[in-house]
Amino acid sequence: MAAQSYAGRFLLGETGTGKTSFISWAGNSVAGNAPECYKSFVDPSNEAGGPMIGSQTNSSILYEFPSSNGVTLRLLDTPGLGDTRGIACDEEHKRNIARAIADHVATADAVLILVNGTQQRLSVVTDYALNTLTSIFPRTLTRNIGFIFTNVANEYSLNFESDGLPEALRNNYWATLDNPFAMDQKRRKDLSNSDSKRRLLPWNLVLGAREASLGTLADIIDWINTLEPQPTRDILLLHEQSVALDQAILDRFAYMGQLADLKKEASTLQKKSKDTQQTMGQHQHFETIINKEVYQPVEAGCSYSVCTVPDCYANCHYSTSYFSNLALSVWTQTWMVGFRKSCRECQHPIEKHRWWKKKWMKVKVEESIMDEEAKAKYTAALEQNGEQQDMMRASEETIASLDMLISTAGARIEELTEAYAKLSISGSFSIQVQKSIALMEMHLNSLQSKESDPHSIESLKRSVDGMKRKLQAVEDVVQKPWKWWSK
């Protein structure tokens, strides 16, 4: 019956299964205290003191009970799981358990999981708690896990069906315990309450439970002595993997959210760019070129008497180049005018004529007609389109980067999920998420049936949706390769 010195045992279970009273029972039993001398061994500062539906233990704490034969019983009391205050509380409890193990326990020879033996059907809360517990322990501890069914005196009073236990642990050690310390505490409470209408628990039942419990304690110690202590490093590794997996999932959600927003912005930008290009197309012909014929003076091989009256482009007379300008002038006045004051050819006054070595000729020219308003719109659209194209290129680069990050996060989820499944007793990370969803939906239905605060209901709905997304993220790694996730 001698237990190994300084052996570490973890005490775990669902909220309300009696872990705290188990601690005091173990302390009194090791000390050899009779029921009339029972005392509490738990640290009162570590007890919540709230409603029993929430965990009464605030944090994990290590208790040591030295016996008269020099053997010290060490029990690590832990907060209960299935806390009605929410999954976040349970996550904090799991972190707390991992920290306590890292600080106090290098090896563990037994893990005692307390289960309410009076319940016949496996409740959602119990199912969640049991699967949570198996998810945080490595396969190396499978044989070292035992179950204590509380609130029942023996196996004939046990209602709990073994198929309610996790499959990997259904053949493990189990014992029943009708805790005499808890019975004594209840009896003392009734004695101190004169208004209590409940029948006082007979003292002989407390004494009988004490005798039976001593046999249970001896049986538990005998079982522990058959076990090989296991290092706790894999428990810590599992916790770290769980935290890393949660982070990888959150990262992927964050990247996907950013990607969705960015693709939406890119689509809007693409539409705007298309509109801008359409504006450019509408106003790109802001300049009109007109081909027309106009009169222009051109170099000539001889002198011409050219009329200078506006819009008269007559080449009235010409002369060979050996005439001097003065002679030509005198001759022209004599020939052109005679007894007239106007030109015989164009009928315009003689003084409006000049002798040039040029003549009027029709020349084809191009004339540019500029629509300044259309030009301004085109120029503005051209500049805007350039900016939009730069933004679209930058957006495409960011999208490609986010696609890569999503793929990386997917690969990380796949890697961690496989490692977790190989190490954990539960064999699957997704099973625990499914149990969490079932528990949260149970609480949600309860709140809705009681017509509770709408804000609380909506908050829990969002939490349920978040857990479902988390489950989908984990299941995706099984359904398709991570390298295709971003497509």
Write the layout of secondary structure elements.
Layout: E1 7-13, H1 19-31, E2 61-66, E3 72-77, H2 87-104, E4 107-108, E5 110-116, H3 124-136, E6 145-150, E7 174-177, H4 180-192, H5 203-225, E8 230-231, H6 233-283, E9 287-307, E10 315-319, H7 325-337, E11 353-370, H8 372-423, H9 429-449, H10 454-479
Parallel strand pairs: 1-3, 1-5, 5-6, 6-7
Antiparallel strand pairs: 2-3, 4-8, 9-10, 9-11
Short précis:
The protein is of the alpha/beta class. It has helices at residues 19-31, 87-104, 124-136, 180-192, 203-225, 233-283, 325-337, 372-423, 429-449, 454-479; strands at 7-13, 61-66, 72-77, 107-108, 110-116, 145-150, 174-177, 230-231, 287-307, 315-319, 353-370.
Describe the structure.
This protein is α/β, with parallel strands linked by helices. β2 and β3 form a beta hairpin. The strands form three sheets. The protein has a six-stranded mixed sheet with strand order 2-3-1-5-6-7, sandwiched between helices. Strands 10-9-11 form a three-stranded antiparallel sheet. Strands 4-8 form a two-stranded antiparallel ribbon. The chain contains ten helices and eleven strands. Helix content is about 50%, strand content about 15%. The chain is rod-shaped, with a radius of gyration of 49 Å.
